[in-house]
Design brief:
By secondary structure, the chain is α+β, with helices and mostly antiparallel strands. The protein is 21% helix and 22% strand. The strands form two sheets. It has a four-stranded mixed β-sheet with strand order 2-1-4-3. Strands 5-6 form a two-stranded antiparallel ribbon. The longest helix is centred in the first third of the chain and has 9 residues, at 32-40.
């Protein structure tokens, strides 16, 4: 799975004040228009530029390809409980059969049995597995999730997000996307 990024749109990679991307998945990108607006509002520093320029009768500037926020945005310690984040935690994979197709989510302990809609009870599941399990407990359906559902950290989601890069990564972004990855000995 990839996020579609058009290289023709000339998006700008947005880095926090510590030079780390605000998010990896989806990758923190702004349109070139938003990046220029942030430059003029003095909210960002330009780190790298495209060859392409925009002009007015009295002004010309190259479009930013990487910008860095001037003020540090403290990342949330606990990501929002959303369908997308559940899929990202589970790496866009059914936790029963392993497929990446036709994903929905399943309550491991069914709601009719008192199961809550929480990180610790919801997993990504394909529609066929979800229908097969139905409202049964895992032991009755003989279906157990591949990994125990848990609340991920933002770091967990960023690490999983790196497994699903966008379809386009501009070369000026590469120095800022993976600099905090552990190096091979």
């Amino acid at each position: 799975m990839t996020i579609a990024v058009s290289p023709d749109a000339l998006p700008a990679l947005v880095l926090n004040a510590d030079y780390r991307p605000l998010s990896y998945y989806p990758l923190s990108l702004w349109s070139w228009q938003d990046a220029i607006k942030a430059v003029f509002l003095d909210r960002v520093n330009i780190v790298a530029e495209y060859e392409h320029a925009v002009s007015s009768p009295s002004f010309s500037m190259r479009l930013p390809s990487v910008v860095c926020l001037k003020s540090y945005v403290k990342p949330s310690r606990h990501p929002a409980f959303t369908r997308f984040n559940v899929f990202l935690r589970d790496r866009f994979q059914c936790q029963y059969c392993g497929t990446h197709e036709d994903l929905t989510f399943d309550h491991v302990i069914p709601r009719r049995c008192g199961g809550a809609t929480t990180w610790e009870n919801v997993v990504a599941a394909c529609s066929p597995c979800n229908l097969r399990k139905g409202g049964l407990m895992p032991r009755d359906a003989k279906m157990w999730p591949r990994q125990k559902p848990m609340q991920p950290t933002v770091h967990d989601l960023h690490n999983n997000g790196r497994l699903f890069p966008p379809n386009h990564l501009h070369e000026s972004w590469m120095d800022y996307l993976y600099w905090d990855v552990e190096l091979e000995p």
